[in-house]
Amino acid sequence: MRIAPGNLPDPQTDYEAKSIAFCRAWISGQTEFTLSTSGSTGTPKPIRLTRRQMVASARLTGHTFGLKPGDRALVCLHVDYIAGIMMLVRGLELGLILTIIEPASNPIDAVLAENESIDFAAFVPLQLHTMLDAASESLPVLNQMKAILVGGAAVDHALAERLQAIEAPVFSTYGMTETVSHIAVRRLNGPNRTDVFRMLPGVEWGLDERNCLFIKAAATDFAVVQTNDVVEVIDSFHFRLVGRADSIINSGGVKVQPELVEKIISKVLMKEAIPSRFFVYGLPDERLGQQVALFVEQTTWDENRIEQLKIAVRAEMGPYAVPRKVIFLPVFAETPTGKIDKKAIASQLRF
């Protein structure tokens, strides 16, 4: 379905009807909207956003990525959540032509079927993996874009390397429902790729006593939003995301940031071109309080590979960060937005 400025077509599916209903509410001047958080770090909860916040966020995105009236944007993230809703708002506020498709693992298929050209899009990592699996078809579409955003989940080393095949600039985004989508970005491909996020203009920020980020901006209605994200400050405009304070594993009195362990494991797996999804999580341990556990999806590994991972983690982070248990599961539970539901997976285990 295509939405151009001043033209709302009749929906043909329930999903299109949901998208059109929001667009009509927006055009009518509705001033408040209730969305749900993704539930990736806790129970999903409703959150009320004002039109003023959403307009500020959309204009900031347009300025950051040079979007102009008439540019074509692809909406392929679920419009029940902030990422999809804000693509609609950007289109309506910036005068973009929107191509709306129901979320799919390879949204480029629909673009090719309609013979569309796209200037701007936002994807989750799984979608980019799938599109790059069909690179001969997807790259001609991706390469012509002004900017490609990746959000919703962390970009691992394997995907980061694959993104180098894309000529268009690809950015990882940092944000949440409470900040009305992204308030910081980092370049993932090309000679300017970096592991450091750049805060967007107009965003005030700082750290609490835990080194967790807090944010104030027009998109938050100038209220302070306190996060649980531990960051390393580079300078007044840049920071490096370390991990979440509420995911820290206390193993024998030693605090282990699981995201750092995951980065080490990802580097080892990338060298062997192993595509398995995995995550590190703290499980109860009678002696240590918590033990570091590695969860792996859809496959099993031999003892030699597991030992290689343990050696790599021990060398960089010490013995307490080494996974004491490796758990193989056929499929990971996911949140409604497609993120791995780590808490739900761990809570179902019985030891």
Automatic annotation (TrEMBL):
Please name the GO terms of the biological process aspect recorded for this protein, alphabetically.
fatty acid metabolic process
**SUPFAM superfamilies with a match to the protein in the record:** Acetyl-CoA synthetase-like
Enumerate the UniProt keywords alphabetically.
Answer: Ligase
GO MF terms held by the record: medium-chain fatty acid-CoA ligase activity
Q: Which organism is it from?
A: Larkinella rosea
- Which residue ranges run through the membrane? none
- Coiled-coil positions are none
Specify whether Ligase is a keyword of the entry. yes
Residues in domain AMP-dependent synthetase/ligase? 37-204
**Every AMP-binding enzyme C-terminal domain range:** 279-339
| Identification of the protein by name | O-succinylbenzoic acid--CoA ligase
Give the family, as the similarity comment puts it. Belongs to the ATP-dependent AMP-binding enzyme family.
